[in-house]
Specification:
alpha/beta; binds S-adenosylmethionine; 8 helices; eight-stranded mixed β-sheet
């Protein structure tokens, strides 16, 4: 069943893409909105609880602000917190993040397992970026806060990465756009390639579920079909949105 969480100010909460670390609301408000979103996901059955370590998240955020080169990003502070919390709650051994650009999206989830925000041990956290130059920058960024190599970035088409991944994919994050003329249609291609490796209970997150809802119509219809996913929630906490689904 399709469900939705919509923050009262989702369309007024706007960031400057070129100032990724600028505060746009008091911390208490950001924490409260994300707590409400997590509670909507918990009550829909997508996640089992809503707890995450706020101090560790703050350490993660500081490390990214200090060490990452981010030319621009559409990941708002609310979205960064939500992605970190989902990583910390789902605790996937293996994660694939598709279309990571400079790595800011990827590390928001992976930061729950590597770097100063780490709260569990993962096996393989793979960020995938089809443009080699962007992949190289993302890998440089990630290496600055994760010397272990558990989180790493590969330059590849995420459809191929998903198709050939050798293990279970506990969390799949979709944000690929703009290559090969497929636009956001590639989300469904990547999900289909990964599908057999996403175990029951695995979580799938799709960025831009609000501002690209038209272009994602086929993808959204797929994950909102109970024959495919047990639960799916459109989290509209900012103008971009995140569809969070559980297989
Ligand atoms: C819009 S950017 C994501 C930016 C992210 N939302 C942020 O705000 O930081 C999408 C990225 O997906 C990459 N991409 C497109 N198709 C892809 C594919 N098939 N596999 C991997 N990456 C892909 C593009 O090169 C681009 O860097």
């Amino acid at each position: 069943m399709a469900r939705e969480y919509r923050a009262e100010d989702w369309d007024r909460y706007k960031m400057d893409y070129k100032r990724p670390h600028a505060e746009i609301e008091p911390a208490a408000r950001e924490i409260a909105v994300v707590a409400d979103a997590l509670e909507a996901l918990r009550s829909a059955g997508v996640i089992g609880h809503t707890d995450y370590d706020r101090e560790k998240f703050a350490a993660h955020r500081r490390a990214v602000a200090e060490h990452f080169e981010v030319p621009w990003t559409a990941i708002t502070p609310r979205m960064q917190r939500l992605l970190y919390a989902l990583g910390a709650i789902v605790r996937p051994a293996n994660l694939i993040a598709a279309g990571v650009f400079c790595g800011n999206t990827f590390i928001s989830s992976a930061g729950a397992a590597v770097g100063p925000g780490a709260c569990y041990e993962a096996a393989a956290l793979i960020g995938v970026e089809i443009k080699p130059d962007e992949a190289a920058r993302a890998e440089r960024n990630v290496r600055r806060i994760d010397p272990t190599g558990v989180a790493r970035v590969v330059a590849e088409d995420a459809v191929e990465t998903a198709r050939h991944f050798p293990g279970d994919i506990g969390l799949l994050y979709l944000d690929a756009d703009g290559a090969g003329g497929r636009g956001k249609g590639v989300y469904l291609d990547i999900l289909r390639a990964a599908w057999d490796k996403v175990p029951p209970g695995g979580v799938i997150c799709a960025h831009n579920s609000v501002n690209s809802a038209d272009r994602l119509a086929e993808y959204l219809a797929f994950v909102r079909d109970p024959a495919h996913c047990r639960a799916s929630v459109n989290v509209a906490l900012d103008p971009e949105g995140l569809e969070v689904s559980m297989k």
